[in-house]
Structure formats: C-alpha cells, structure tokens
Amino acid sequence: MNDILASMSNFNFCYRIVPCLADPARRSSLGLKAALVALHLVYAGILFLFDSDLIEKTKEEPWYTAIYLLLFVVALIQYFVTSCSSPGYVLDAMRDVNEKNSLYRRSSMLSKQPASSKSGSFVITVEGSESERNTQGSNITSWTKLVLDMYPPGTSIRTFTCSYCNVEQPPRAKHCHDCDKCVLQFDHHCVWLGTCIGRGNHCQFWWYIFEETALCLWTGILYITYLKANILRVWWKDAVMILLLVTLSIALIFLLLLLIFHSYLILTYQTTYELVRRRRIPYLRGIPERVFPFSKGVCRNLYDFCFGRSSIYSLERLPTAMEIEEKSRPYTCSDFLTCRCC
C-alpha cells in the first residue's frame, strides 16, 4: 500500500513539473514522437556502427555523409514543425474576423465620422477575391454573415452549424473528434504527428512526407550497399541488417504511396476527407465524381498550395452552378492549346 502511495506521489510530482504529461492524449502523442525519433536514430546508428566502409568513405568524401546527415536532421525538424503547426481552426478564424471588424468600428468612431456616411463594411480575405462584407444593422455576428455569403442564397444557418463547437462552419471545414475542434479545409487527423492536417499545415505535411521518403530511400540504398559488400561475413550482423531493410522497404512503399496520393490531391485541389466521403458531403453530393469543384487548374492549384496561402484563415466560397457546369465541360483541342487545364 505504501509503495502504491509512493508511486502515485511520484507521478503527481512529475505532472507538476511537466503539466502536459497529466493529459493522456498528450502523453501518447509525446510517446509517438519519442518512438519516431528513436527509430530514426536506430536505423542511422546501426548503419554507421556496422558499416566500416561508410566510415572510410566519410573520411574520403565528407560531403556525402554531410548531405545525408543534413537530410536526416531536416526531416526530423520538419516533423516537429508540422506537428506543432496549426491546421487552421474555425474558432481562431472567427476571432480573427470579429477582431478585425471591431478594430474597423473603433477606427470609424475615432475618425469622428457619422455612421450613416460609412458603409459599415470590412475587408476580409476570401480565396479568389477580396470582397466587402456588410456588417451593419443586425444581431448576427460578422463571422455568421461572412460564412452565410459562402453558401448559396437561402441556406439555413443550422445546416452548417457544428453541433459540437456550436460555430458556423465555412465550406470545406469539418469537426475533428480527436482535436475536438473544427478545422478549415480539413484533410485528416494524423496520429503520428498528433495534430490535424488542414489548410494551415497541409503544405508542411507534404514537405515532411517528401523529406521522409527521400531519407528512407537513401538509407535503404546504404543498407543494400553494405549487404552487397559484407554478406556472409558476420551472420548476426547480416540478420539485423536484412530485418531492418525489410521494415524500411515496407515504410518506403507506404511513404511513396502517401506522397503520390497527396500530390494528386494538391493537383486536383481536394482533401482526403472530400475524396473519401464525397457522397456524404452535402455540397459535393450532386457533383459528378470526375469534376473537381474547387480546382483552378493544375498550375494555379500548385501556386496556391505553395505560395498563395498568405493567411491560414482565408476562406473559400462554394462554386456557383455556372462554374461547376464550366468545369464539367469536356476538354477539347482548343482547351489544351489555351491551357484551360492549367
């Protein structure tokens, strides 16, 4: 009994020193992060420990090993940067919009200009254009009016109000049950990263997969090079290296498929959630499967994904019926000549 009480007091002492350990979800997330770092160190450490030829090559060509170690460090840094980044939460976007509106009203009052001479509008970044939103003469908040304008006229507020957060969701947003928050342009919840992937961190996520794939491929080549030169010399070393190479190959196949899949999503301007649950999402239900309603062309999609995300709180309205009809139109030779697909 005394031992149990002593162990409980030790746990409480640890929780006071490191408060994040008191949360089971955070503990599991930290455990996964520690396991991933340990896996990286094991694969690279055993390689340098067993492969004497690699050590000799490092002495002759230090740049080769330096580039490999640089990629190793960059991949781990990108992992932690992505895991700590915000996917873009709806609540944060709502606060941002309401704060901008309140600041505008304060500046209008300080300028001592009559309210009747002002339009009562504020400018908010909406993907595709910058438009003014009227926020005067109603009890509805600025955020609600802004979100309403993203949907077709006549849409009820209840149809896009989250039943968990009780906030109005703009198009492409979804509530994540793991994070217990609504995420803008929700893609999926990544267990290994311990966070959601959304509008705010999808680009960082893609770069992390790319760097991890490159590191995994390079490490596999080094393992194969070792086995070619040292096979049947020390059997237990060969067994360890073959076992690690097999698991590394499985991880590489998974990473390559994931990289190709997310590259396809970027080129077509979709999310994993929209692709998998297309028939269940109200605003995608009536659109043909081969039509990508939010796509602006391959080149524009790439540009927006890499450089056009100046704000993680930028919103995107639903396309009109005419825009969907235009995107549904089959490509012709003249369309390719005029780069319609781009």
In short:
This protein has 342 residues and is mostly helical. It is built from twelve helices and seven strands. The longest helix is centred in the C-terminal third of the chain and has 34 residues.
Can you put this structure into words, describing what you see?
- GO terms for molecular function: protein-cysteine S-palmitoyltransferase activity.
- Pfam families: DHHC.
- Keywords: Acyltransferase, Lipoprotein, Membrane, Palmitate, Transferase, Transmembrane, Transmembrane helix.
- Its main location: membrane.
- By secondary structure, the protein is mainly alpha-helical.
- Helices cover 56% and strands 8% of the residues.
- It has twelve helices and seven strands.
- It has helices spanning 2-17, 24-50, 52-60, 62-84, 90-110, 142-148, 202-230, 235-268, 272-276, 298-306, 321-328, 333-337, and strands spanning 121-127, 129-134, 174-176, 181-183, 188-190, 195-197, 315-316.
- The strands form three sheets. The protein has a three-stranded mixed beta sheet. Strands 3-4 form a two-stranded antiparallel sheet.
- A hairpin with a 4-residue loop joins β3 (174-176) and β4.
- α3 (52-60) crosses α4 (62-84).
- The termini are far apart.
What structural class do helix, strand and pairing data support? mainly alpha
Shape: elongated
Number of helices: 12
Strand order of the largest sheet: 2-1-7
Strand runs, count? 7
Helices and strands, in order, run as: HHHHHEEHEEEEHHHHEHH
Mean pLDDT: 82
Low-confidence segments, given as residue ranges, are: 115-124, 128-139
The description of the largest β-sheet is:
3 strands, mixed
Integer-rounded radius of gyration: 26 Å
Report helical residue fraction. Answer: 55-70%
First-residue to last-residue Cα separation: 71 Å
Strand content: 5-15%
Protein name: S-acyltransferase
Pfam family, one: DHHC
GO molecular function, one term: protein-cysteine S-palmitoyltransferase activity
Organism: Salix purpurea
